[in-house]
Design brief:
The chain has 204 residues and is mostly helical. The protein contains nine helices and no strands. The longest helix is centred in the C-terminal third of the chain and has 31 residues. The radius of gyration is 17 Å and the shape is globular.
Length: 204
């Protein structure tokens, strides 16, 4: 159970720290309307991911277990690739993109996330296979993994919004440090999922 909580929380922690459309949206909305009005947008990933998760799990559930293990290993490779990108950004930090048009409602924030490819890749290659593997062990493990992921993500996005609104943008040194932590988390999770997928494929 603890393992699933750590995997879910670690994935969410790394995901929130990665620059993307949702983070750019949050920055633009806080700048335009303040953190209090932007705060409900932290729920956008939970709402937008429901149909994505159902679709991905329905498709994955029809695949042979060996194919699910292969996807799990592929998810580990994807995380290692993202870790590599995070390391590059850590070594050569650049200013975050905030010059995007600003949606004005939670619904618009949900649409921003639905049009973002990251949730689809995340569920297809990482969360989906991990959740199915946990479900086969015990349903409570899968619930713990998914609950930990979204609980951590919503909490961190809320903190992100408040921090931007109260201290504006974080000190560049702090930003760089957080990116380094994100890279380490992604690399560790990637190696874990890749190893777990390979062991399952080999029948260990």
């Amino acid at each position: 159970m603890l393992e699933n909580l750590l995997i879910g929380g670690g994935l969410a922690f790394a995901a929130v720290l990665q620059p993307g459309p949702l983070q750019a949206f949050l920055v633009s909305r806080v700048t335009a309307t303040g953190w209090r009005r932007t705060l409900p947008a932290c729920l956008a990933p939970l709402i937008s991911d429901i149909p994505i998760a159902l679709l991905v799990l329905l498709v994955l559930g029809q695949l042979p277990v060996s194919a699910q293990h292969l996807l799990r290993a592929g998810g580990g490779v994807l995380l290692l690739y993202l870790a590599y990108g995070a390391i590059r950004q850590w070594r050569n930090p650049s200013a975050p993109e905030a010059e995007r048009s600003a949606p004005r409602t939670l619904l618009d924030a949900v649409l921003v996330n639905v049009l973002n490819p990251h949730p689809y890749l995340g569920w297809a290659l990482i969360l989906g296979p991990a959740a199915l593997a946990a479900w086969r062990e015990h349903p409570a493990r899968a619930v713990a993994l998914v609950g930990s992921f979204y609980g951590t993500m919503i909490s961190m996005l809320a903190l992100f919004i408040v921090l931007i609104g109260t201290v504006r943008f974080l000190n560049p040194r702090v930003q760089r440090g957080l990116m380094g932590v994100s890279a380490i988390a992604l690399a560790g999770l990637g190696l874990f999922l890749l190893g777990a997928g390979i062991r399952s494929i080999a029948g260990f």
